[in-house]
Each structure stands twice: as structure tokens, then as C-alpha cells.
Backbone:
């Protein structure tokens, strides 16, 4: 798109599609509730895209330019879509192979119920620092922790909030993280100096998060948690349970740590889990099949690609032993595609840069500069539905402004991480929000308030800027 087209669009034309989208999504969710993800939210995103498209044509942006940008946006999520499908297959195969039931069984045996929530934060943080990925963390250890929380009777939004808080803390602080590397690269900052500088805002935020979950856990224990621990032995009635099953999650985590492509790592996780079904879950296979090769093959494939239910007569265990497989991810993929269409139109018509430019012009003070950066990151996360754009667009737009005020680029890299990376998971139609909601099977609106680290991070970075604590100069 030409520079002239970017200059033509007005602020009014830039924000109207966002206002329309958020308003329509709010009305839609209030009417449909959780079922809004079954298609109506996707339609709203397409309607929002058409509104943005109209303003683009009004400002003489060529339709071909808009469709080319949409096409590029969709190409950029080809790998995440494959990952979503594989994670669905992973959750199904890991359930039927006994991996997830074993995680739950031993987790219930080993984890102190009184400190379950802070344990979720800490374990998720350790795995995320090791792998450099919040997505891999929730797809592996996260689904096990959610299962344990479900058995114990904790609110699943609360458990998901603890897992996500730990996962995104670890993701931010890991030198293996793609978003951490991107934030350093786009602002031309040294990676390890960037990570070190982030501790000023990140450590206080994670400490507050841990204090909350510890206090909440101690004073708000589910009344029937101890009784529900009795169900733990019932898991053995349906699955072969053994620590030997953990070698598959360990293999997947090691592969990711060694920077093996996540598509390859997750696929290996599915195939090896399918092998475990054959080797260890003979009793389960017998209860579902006719004990012949074809029916066994069908059972294993169905566990990966479609819904699988194990009826136990116990509602708690029935919910626990349900998996949607790859099929369960299709609504999420649909949502992500529609969201990226909207983001593509907004990017093509120059709306994202126009909003960032407006915020930049209004900056009069150092605190105003930090505030504008935060707002810009949040706006891009809402409108473009992609955390990478929420890093790149503000990172490029605000770089000179920080330099002009004699502020080190580390201030910018830290701010876009605090407000761009971690808040993406709080937006239902953002790729991160849609992914985590599907993997953990918890609606974004249910875990939003409990993902304390994620919404507190931009607040912390603004407080640090306001009191001018350790603001690094050039």
C-alpha cells in the first residue's frame, strides 16, 4: 500500500470499525453466551471486516491491496492452525493413552491441595521458561493441571488463570521465546539486557500473582476437595496408570527445548501416544472395540480426530474423561481465520498505524509516552487479533519518540512485552485467547479476571513509569 493511502485515512475512519466490532461482539456474547463461539462471533468478525473494508474503499485504498493483505495474514497463521489441530489430537491421544489420567492421578497424590493454585503458577512458569512457549506449556502440563483442578472442585476459570499467569511469565523471561526475541529485535535491543530489564516490572507482578493465588487457595478451599480425592483410585479402573507414560510428555518438552519445530514435536507426541494406547490400554480398547485390528485402528484414530467419551457413571469422571480431539478445535480455527481477516483489512487500510500515530502525537510527557505505547499495543491486540503485530507496529512507530526523549530502547521493548505479549490471551478473538480457551477448555471471559499476571503487567509498567523507577537513559 502506498504512503499516500496511509495518510488519507482519518482517525474517525480508523476507530469506527473497532467500536462497531466490540459493540456487536458484546451484544452477541450477551445473547449467545458460551455458544457464541459456535459461529455467531465468527460472523460478527466478518461484518466488522466489511465495515473496515468500506472505510478503506472510501479512502481510495484498492480492494486488491486489502485482499492481498488478508491473504498474507492468513498465510501467517498457517502454522498456528496446524498447531491447533495437532494440540486437539494431542489432548485426545494423551487422554486415551493414559498420559493425562496418569498426570491427574499422580498430581492428586503429590500436590498439596492447600497450595494447588500457586503450584500451577510455578510449574507452568518453569515449563514455559524451559520451552520458551506459553502455547506448548498449556498443551502439555496445562491440560493435566486443569484436570487435577476439575477433580478437586476448583473453579476452572481460576485454575486456567493460574496456569496462564505462570505460562506467560515464563514465556516473557525465556531467551527461547519468539515474542521475547521479537520485542528485542524490533526495538534493536540486546536480548539478555531486555530480559534483565523486564525483571523490574515482571518480578513484582508475578509476586503479587503468587500472593493472590496462595491466599485465595488457603481461604477458599472447595468444600468437597478431600472427598473428591477418593475418586483418584477410580481412575485405575479405566486406565493403566504408570510413571512410564510420562516419557511421551518429556520427549515433547525436550524436543521443544531443543528448538525442534513445534509441528514436528506435537506430531511425535501424538504418534508415540497412539503407540502407548496399543501397548498399555488393552482393557480400554476391549471395552470399546471388537478385539480385531480394524476396530482397534478405528478406536485409536477416533481418539485423535473426534470426540471420545468414557462413561463411568460418575459425572466428575465423565467430564474428566471427555476429549474433543482435532474436531474440537475447528470452531477455534474458524474464529482465528475470521479474526485475521478483520486484522488484515485494518492493517491494509492503514488504521493500525493511524491510531498509533495519533497516540504518538498526543504524547507530551515521558509517562504519556509509556501510556500511549500501552494503549497502542492493546488497540492492535484487539483490532489485529495478533500478538506479533501488537509488538511490531508499536515497536516501529514509537522507536524514534523514545530516542528523542533520550530513553533507552529497553524501555520500549519492555513496555511492548508488558502490554502487547501478555494481554493477547485476554481477548477472545485474538489468536492467543482463542488458542488457550480451546486447549484448556475454559472460556476467556471465565479466566480473564484470574489471569492476574496478564492484566496486571501493563498496569505495573505504567506505575514504574509514573514513579520514574530505574528508567534507563541512553
Residues:
Amino acid at each position: 500500500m502506498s504512503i499516500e493511502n496511509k495518510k488519507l485515512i482519518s482517525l474517525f475512519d480508523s476507530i469506527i470499525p473497532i467500536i462497531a466490532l466490540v459493540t456487536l461482539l458484546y451484544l452477541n456474547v450477551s445473547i449467545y453466551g458460551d455458544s457464541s463461539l459456535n459461529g455467531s462471533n465468527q460472523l460478527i468478525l466478518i461484518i466488522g471486516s466489511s465495515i473496515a473494508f468500506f472505510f478503506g474503499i472510501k479512502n481510495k485504498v484498492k480492494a486488491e491491496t486489502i485482499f492481498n493483505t488478508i491473504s498474507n495474514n492468513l498465510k501467517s497463521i498457517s502454522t498456528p492452525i496446524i498447531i491447533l489441530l495437532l494440540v486437539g489430537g494431542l489432548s485426545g491421544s494423551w487422554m486415551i493413552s493414559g498420559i493425562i489420567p496418569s498426570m491427574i492421578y499422580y498430581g492428586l497424590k503429590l500436590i498439596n491441595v492447600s497450595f494447588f493454585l500457586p503450584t500451577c503458577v510455578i510449574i507452568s512458569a518453569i515449563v514455559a521458561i524451559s520451552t520458551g512457549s506459553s502455547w506448548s506449556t498449556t498443551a502439555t502440563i496445562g491440560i493435566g493441571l486443569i484436570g487435577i483442578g476439575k477433580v478437586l472442585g476448583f473453579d476452572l476459570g481460576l485454575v486456567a488463570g493460574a496456569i496462564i499467569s505462570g505460562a506467560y511469565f515464563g514465556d516473557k523471561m525465556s531467551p527461547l521465546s519468539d515474542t521475547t526475541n521479537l520485542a528485542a529485535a524490533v526495538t534493536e535491543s540486546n536480548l539478555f539486557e531486555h530480559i534483565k530489564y523486564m525483571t523490574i516490572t515482571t518480578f513484582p507482578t508475578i509476586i503479587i500473582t503468587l500472593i493472590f493465588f496462595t491466599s485465595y487457595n488457603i481461604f477458599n478451599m472447595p468444600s468437597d476437595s478431600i472427598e473428591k480425592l477418593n475418586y483418584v483410585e477410580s481412575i485405575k479402573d479405566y486406565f493403566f496408570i504408570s510413571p512410564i507414560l510420562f516419557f511421551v510428555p518429556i520427549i515433547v518438552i525436550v524436543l521443544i527445548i531443543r528448538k525442534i519445530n513445534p509441528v514436528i514435536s506435537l506430531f511425535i507426541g501424538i504418534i508415540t501416544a497412539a503407540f502407548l494406547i496399543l501397548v498399555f490400554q488393552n482393557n480400554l480398547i476391549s471395552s470399546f472395540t471388537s478385539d480385531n485390528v480394524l476396530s482397534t485402528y478405528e478406536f485409536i484414530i477416533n481418539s485423535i480426530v473426534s470426540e471420545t467419551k468414557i462413561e463411568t457413571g460418575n459425572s466428575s469422571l465423565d467430564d474428566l474423561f471427555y476429549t474433543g480431539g482435532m474436531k474440537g478445535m475447528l470452531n477455534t480455527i474458524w474464529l482465528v481465520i475470521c479474526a485475521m481477516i478483520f486484522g488484515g483489512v485494518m492493517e491494509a487500510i492503514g488504521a493500525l498505524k493511524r491510531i498509533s500515530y495519533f497516540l504518538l502525537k498526543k504524547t507530551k510527557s515521558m509517562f504519556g509516552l509509556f501510556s500511549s505505547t500501552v494503549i497502542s499495543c492493546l488497540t492492535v491486540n484487539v483490532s489485529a487479533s495478533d500478538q506479533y503485530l501488537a509488538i511490531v507496529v508499536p515497536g516501529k512507530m514509537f522507536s524514534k519518540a523514545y530516542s528523542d526523549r533520550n530513553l533507552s530502547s529497553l524501555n520500549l521493548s519492555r513496555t511492548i512485552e508488558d502490554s502487547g505479549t501478555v494481554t493477547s490471551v485476554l481477548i477472545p478473538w485474538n489468536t492467543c485467547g482463542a488458542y488457550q480457551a480451546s486447549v484448556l477448555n475454559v472460556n476467556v471471559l471465565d479466566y480473564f479476571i484470574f489471569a492476574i499476571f496478564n492484566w496486571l503487567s501493563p498496569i505495573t509498567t505504567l506505575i514504574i513509569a509514573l514513579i520514574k523507577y530505574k528508567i534507563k537513559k541512553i
User: Anything to note?
Assistant: The chain has a mean pLDDT of 88.
